[in-house]
Amino acid sequence: GAVVSQHPSRVICKSGTSVKIECRSLDFQATTMFWYRQFPKKSLMLMATSNEGSKATYEQGVEKDKFLINHASLTLSTLTVTSAHPEDSSFYICSIKREREQYFGPGTRLTVT
Amino acid sequence: GIQVEQSPPDLILQEGANSTLRCNFSDSVNNLQWFHQNPWGQLINLFYIPSGTKQNGRLSATTVATERYSLLYISSSQTTDSGVYFCAGIKAAGNKLTFGGGTRVLVKP
User: Fold this and answer.
1) Which chain A residues have a beta carbon less than 8 Å from that of B100?
2) How many A×B Cβ pairs under 8 Å?
3) Do A3 and A24 meet the contact criterion of CB atoms below 8 Å apart?
4) Chain B residues close to A100, C-beta within 8 Å
5) What is the largest CA-CA distance in chain B?
6) What is the pLDDT of residues B6-50, one digit of tens each?
């Protein structure tokens, strides 16, 4: 398997501020990491694919200027939600792919007040 | 991209009962996984099963790739089996894992 951590596990921020979420691959060097978003009682939706040393690839409808992704090393990817609004409140989950399976972090619950 | 449909959307079981969850894909997939999302949100890998049958304790899964569906069997269910079960697949030659809507399972004591 693979071990993935996220920090923080939950965060509350005020509208208009920015929040950074970290995703770490603890036992595997991941050239690619994935960021998902999950709304309450809904499924996971892929937001973007994070590539080490290069720009992230965003899914259709995801604003790249709002959700900044940085994959600076083989073990760390960060997602920054800029100028957060209440509608950005959600559960954000990162994932890595090792061999053929994807493994997920524990998620970060973001609440924007 | 592919469409992934799961059924049923909700399932209430009495402890000890058996159940079958289904996942249908709109296109061929070369990667198929089943996950259990626990009440804290953590996705736990259950099976990587693009084809064939696998078993792990009380859980087993079967994928019929030619017919684009997969089944997850839960036997002798326990309250700890409660949560949401997701299947997800990657289209052949693709790289994006697409999730189904999930089956919410509640096992009552």
Assistant:
1) 43
2) 42
3) no
4) 31, 48
5) 44
6) 999 999 999 999 999 999 999 999 899 999 999 999 999 999 999
